[in-house]
Recover the amino acids of this structure.
């Protein structure tokens, strides 16, 4: 109704993750957010019900496909064996990341789980324990740590990178809603809000702080088939040292999906202080949707301009007169997916490497 002011309900909690550098995760949308950010994220809403109901089955298929992918996963890129910290998703623990940690360990890296039990949210134990675990791992090895975060764990990972950039080498997020504009973009929002009473001290910080770029290289892996989190909430802002990589898996399958594991291996193999965008080998390119610009590419070619043209029409027989008339422009035609895919393929598969400033 016009003139009526909507007041937030008591259940709409403000969460304080200041000590993790995460800002506020609130249910409202900042009306002062830029138009570019709004266009990048798209509509605010949960994934389709069909994707949600098929999450367990699709996750099982992802796990079954892992066995078939073992031969080519054995050829995954290998790096310098630096330490890696793996953070689980919401309501999950280290057991759910066992396959991911085992694969990374097989590549020669020093892998560590978060060792904080079940991830029920940003409790006081998590707020105090994560920075301590990061510092201990970096001190023990004597170098920065790559942090891999699955779902809510990716939000933690970006917070650690923002709070301790000298201890974090890079961040890899797997279906993490760090760019979430509204809690309705997650199917787990109601369960998340019910546990807000045990979270850290509440303060009021704009939600846009969660999606701000981190000061270290970051790779956001997302899936349009995600049934838990809207994929638009999992993509990073375009810029140097940042990339969004799309895979075809379920939200519950990020930890054991073969294409996701290859992306993780490729990112961890980057030398320290260097960056190069992910480009799958030629044989694996069909497994990755070729959409390097999830929002801008399709929007730019959505309504091509069609100029009106003039045609000649002869009058009735016997007059010999020519009459010109203007034909109205045809309605804009949407660009086909194959055309967009061809345009993406014409772009260079990899860009020049760049060295980060100290």
């Amino acid at each position: 109704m016009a003139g009526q002011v909507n007041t937030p309900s008591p259940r709409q909690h403000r969460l304080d993750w200041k000590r993790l550098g995460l800002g506020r995760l609130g249910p409202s949308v900042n009306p002062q957010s830029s138009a570019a950010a709004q266009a990048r994220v798209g509509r605010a809403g949960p994934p389709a019900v069909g994707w949600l109901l098929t999450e367990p089955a699709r996750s099982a298929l992802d796990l079954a496909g892992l066995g078939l992918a073992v031969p080519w996963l054995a050829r995954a890129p290998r790096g310098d064996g630096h330490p890696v910290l793996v953070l689980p998703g919401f309501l999950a623990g280290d057991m759910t990341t066992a396959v991911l940690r085992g694969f990374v360990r097989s590549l020669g890296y020093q892998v560590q789980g978060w060792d904080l039990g079940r991830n029920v949210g940003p409790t006081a134990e998590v707020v105090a324990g994560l920075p301590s675990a990061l510092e201990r791992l970096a001190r023990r090895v004597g170098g920065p740590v790559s942090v891999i975060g699955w779902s809510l764990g990716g939000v933690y990972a970006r917070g650690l990178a923002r709070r301790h950039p000298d201890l974090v080498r890079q961040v890899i997020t797997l279906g993490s809603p760090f760019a979430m504009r509204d809690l309705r973009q997650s199917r787990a929002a109601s369960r998340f809000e019910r546990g807000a009473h045990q979270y850290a001290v509440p303060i009021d910080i704009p939600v846009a702080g969660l999606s701000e770029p981190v000061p270290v290289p970051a790779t956001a892996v997302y899936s349009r088939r995600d049934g838990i989190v809207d994929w638009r909430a999992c993509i990073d802002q375009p810029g140097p040292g940042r990339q969004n990589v799309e895979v075809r898996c379920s939200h519950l399958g990020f930890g054991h999906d073969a294409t996701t594991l290859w992306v993780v291996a490729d990112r961890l193999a980057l030398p320290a202080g260097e960056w190069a965008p992910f480009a799958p080998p030629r044989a694996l390119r069909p497994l990755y949707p070729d959409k390097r610009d999830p929002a801008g590419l399709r929007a730019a070619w959505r309504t091509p301009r069609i100029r009106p043209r003039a045609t000649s029409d002869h009058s009735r027989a016997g007059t010999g007169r020519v009459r010109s008339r203007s034909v109205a422009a045809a309605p804009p035609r949407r660009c086909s997916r194959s055309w967009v895919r061809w345009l993406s393929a014409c772009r260079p598969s990899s860009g020049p490497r760049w060295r980060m400033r100290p």
